[in-house]
Amino acid sequence: MPYLIRRLLQMAFVLWAVATIVFLMFRLMPGDPSAAFIDPTFTVEQQQAVRAQFGLDRPLPQQYLIYLGNLLHGEFGLSFRQRQPVLGMVLEVLPNTLLLTLTALLIAYAFGTLLGALMAWKRGGRFEAISVPLVLTTRAAPEFWVGMVMLAIFAFGLGWLPSGGANVAGAQYASEWDRILSLDYLRHLALPALTLAIYLQGLPALLMRSSMLEVMREEFVTMARMKGLPERTIMLRHAARNALLPLVTAFALGFGQSVGGNVVVENVFSWPGLGRLLAEAIANSDYPLAQCAFLLIALVLVLMNFLADLLYGLLDPRVAHGRG
Amino acid sequence: MDVAEARAAPAVAALPIRRRRGAWAAFARHLLRDPYALIGISIYAIFVVVGLTAPWLAPYDPMEILFTADGGLAASLPPSADHWLGTTNLGRDIVSQLVMGTQPSLIVGLSAAVAVASIGTVVGLLAGYFGGAVDQVLMRVTDIVLGLPFLPFVIVVTALLGPELQNIVFAVAVLLWPNAARVIRSQVLTLSQRQFVEAARVTGAGEWRILFVHVAPSVLPFSALYGAFAVGWAILTQASIAFLGFGDSSAISWGTMLQDAYASQALDRGQYFWFLPAGFCIVLVVLAGFLVSRGYEDLLFPKLRDDT
Amino acid sequence: MTELLAVRDLAVAYANGAVHAVDGANLSVRRGGMLGLVGESGCGKTTLARALMGVLPGGARITRGEARLDGTDLVALSPAARRARLWRDLAFVPQTAMSALDPVYRLRDQMREVLCDRGGLSRTAADARAVELFEAVGLHPSRLADYPHQFSGGMRQRAAIALALALKPKLVIADEPVTALDVIVQRQVLDTFRSLSTDLGLSAIIVTHDISVVAYLCDQVAVMYAGRVVEHGPANAVLEQPSHPYTMGLMNAFPDLESDEAVLAPIEGSPPPLSDPPPGCRFAPRCPFAEAVCTREVPPAVAVTPDHWAACHRTPEAAALRPRARDPLTWRGVAEATA
């Protein structure tokens, strides 16, 4: 079977499995999911009508089939609290999360890759002895705490940047694009993106370091030296270029993981994104909303895992042709 | 069985045991020689001692609301001889909270390590040794787990099962064991080809005996490594859950301390002594795990070792 | 023909000088000549080749001696001056081109790197030259657009040769250039070298453990043993009338090139540890003709003919020793007796 088709089938299987796990988890949640719709004044008949409306009067396997069918049609239900389709609510905040993730990852990978390449180049020296433990420390620091420190210093202490949200309250914009491209939005984005980047840069830095150390032992690096090329050229054009391959994969994987991993940072900075929506929905027992947010986060994750695999094949000519 | 074979058996059977000692001895040597690992072990040791003696070390009850000599609420006091790190906005002693907060972190970290290492080892051994259906199931389960977003999953599990520590450990273990199992599986695959396993088979040892007596000891160092990874993840996850307000709010932990500081505008008031120490403690414990496992990882996966 | 490269008493040490992989090697390459550098694995021939290129693995360095290329001592040059000469004066063909060619660049880009960055050519000039070079080694120029992994083993090796020839180096050093290939492809690559030698007057050192490669390709040969060159001379003279007992033994280990009678008599024992070599002649412990002087004094290079020498105390008796060396019984039990 061609690789692409096999990989697509695998992705479909994972999506189905995740959807099933989500169904079971939310069906087992404490409390009746229809409770929010039922007033104490309702008669028993009225209560049952509401339950029937949710399909809760049917046996579990049938509910499961209805649930899967709804997912395929993009039906995620109504929010218990807001009484409006959850999909719209989730899609409304999705751009914020994607932008935050992308900004943070770009900063993290630009910085981390350079740092990792330098650590490999200057291996065994003082630079490496200091930077490796430092990078490990950033990986050990809880993101929300780093965010709190950033807030205390830059928002409350120095007053340079706003302390939360995505836009100044009450601001009006002609379109969504105007809002996102405004300087105000950028100022709100700065601290959460930087906080995330501080955590995220550790992986590319360590990955680049070990990947490049491995490449530096390759014969073609020795050959580049025999060709009389300057050390800079050898390191950048040959060692770093070959070492980059695993980082591209890691970037795609990291994107998928951060969309869900943003939960904490979004909450620290009151960033109106998916993670914050999910946490609030669970805290309010708004299960349809939480379920939809969770499914969307999982969907991004699975798609990115898939993309990472494809990218790996495209970028490494050996793999690309080997699979052809 | 041939007489010659029977006589050869004990000598051959002794091999894996020597191997196992070799691996642990290498681990011990690594700890003593690698200064980073030594620092990591020392940090662990200090926190374990603090955690065990926390009720006696803590100067106050961490939840007790304290009053000053003149009868006022001892709220938001700066650090002093009485309160080394000052008090919270409700008049609670921060040092006492910090000391008591050591316990949940250590409990979560260590139990997650044990859970991940044991599930991962058993499944990895079965999948690697028997292959077939177990192997297929392991691979598919790993795929699925990679499709579950980490923190959102833990949040939903705590919402479902309750905020207690064991549920956080359960969720973390569910997400981390397949990775450990996969690595151990591949180790078992190479080990089963080795001579001492072949030899044990020739002498008529049962499959289960071969698996647990001959193969298992050699993969235990890998289990330990993945257990060590789990410590950091579990501690960070527990703190995050507590910070988000999904944790057990009745129990003091570093995460709940930070959530309390955040919600009580400690950042706004610049009460660094309130929210910095708890964060530093989390960093130290998680970092200790990294420092110990980092060099150890080089030892187990020599491909990555830098010998140029 | 004049001397192009003269290596005198070259020594390369590993591990802070405790081990000498090359310890006082002498050899010379003539302009337009092909020198075969033969020896068992671990005799230091690859280290010697890499030392000449100035690229030794970490921890290894040249401790003494000189290597004069066209009169300039490469060892005495500053690193910068040394690097300026690399690939222009001296180029290298690796054992496995698969790992020696950067996998992520097309061959054209690898050609351009050498021709533009090191040779100062424009892109267009470089591309034209690359076509010439590919044709010279028998590769179709359209293959310049391919990545290394798209080549077969033999083609990859020829691409590596083309790269080595790019800047018209004075000397090419090839380290086991055909060892990794199967026999038929070996022949094709050797023929490539041969035609380059006759058409372009290529000067080269061919490092190999395979005497038949030397016999096929080289006009001169240097035999290495335990870090030293023990015999050096015209290929047919050394192969047909070896004057050092080690060369005699080595010839026994190969089927006779001329006749069909295969006398396979391996040299017993193994080369001495380089961390603790024996005093005197390093081959003495395995040599059936060793005398008391051999274990005491390092043998000097003794001329057999003006351009053929052997580092052996008994070189003058070589003609008498040769027939005895052909008898497998001569070699039996020598190593144990002296151990």
UniProtKB/TrEMBL annotation, chain A:
Chain segments annotated as transmembrane: 12-29, 98-121, 142-161, 185-207, 243-265, 293-315
Intracellular or extracellular location(s): Cell membrane
Keyword Cytoplasm: no
Topology class, membrane: Multi-pass membrane protein
InterPro entries in the record: BPD_transp_1_N, MetI-like, MetI-like_sf
Domain ABC transmembrane type-1: start-end pairs: 94-308
GO biological process: transmembrane transport
Keywords: Cell membrane, Membrane, Transmembrane, Transmembrane helix, Transport
Gene Ontology cellular component annotations, sorted alphabetically: plasma membrane
CDD domains: TM_PBP2 (cd06261)
Location, primary (coarse class): membrane
Annotated SUPFAM superfamilies: MetI-like
Family per record: Belongs to the binding-protein-dependent transport system permease family.
Protein name stated in the entry: ABC transporter permease
Species whose genome carries this gene: Teichococcus coralli
From TrEMBL, chain B:
Subcellular location: Cell membrane
Main location group: membrane
InterPro entries: BP-dependent_transpt_permease, MetI-like, MetI-like_sf, OppC_N
Keywords from the named record: Cell membrane, Membrane, Peptide transport, Protein transport, Transmembrane, Transmembrane helix, Transport
Listed GO CC annotations: plasma membrane
Domain ABC transmembrane type-1 span(s) in chain numbering: 102-293
Membrane-spanning segments: 36-58, 106-132, 144-162, 211-236, 272-293
Protein name: ABC transporter permease
Source taxonomy: Bacteria, Pseudomonadati, Pseudomonadota, Alphaproteobacteria, Acetobacterales
